[in-house]
Amino acid sequence: MFISTLFYSFNKCKGLQFFRKSSDMENKLPENLYLGIELGSTRIKCSLIDENGNNLENGIFNWENSFIYGNWTYDLNQAIYGVGQCYLDLKKKIKLKYGSTLNNLKQLVFLQ
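Above: the chain's sequence. Below: its structure in token form.
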């Protein structure tokens, strides 16, 4: 019995159901993926979309600006770290939702 290759979900009506990890999962990650990243005022957000513009999943990282020398600003190191953490959050969610890794990006877009 290969328990490590099975996922289970509990359905209130049907009880315990088993699914094979790769072949029987309903959600399959599309081939052409696009990643958008926004550095917003309170959080960094990244959205993974397919070629039809459907949002597949989001990642977030919360951050705060600082008032330095009379200007509201963000630390560059915090921005770099935040983009990385946002992407890691997205990767974890994709792994849970689709059972696969994120490795087929067609384009990366930064928004401000």
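The first helix runs from residue 76 to 98.
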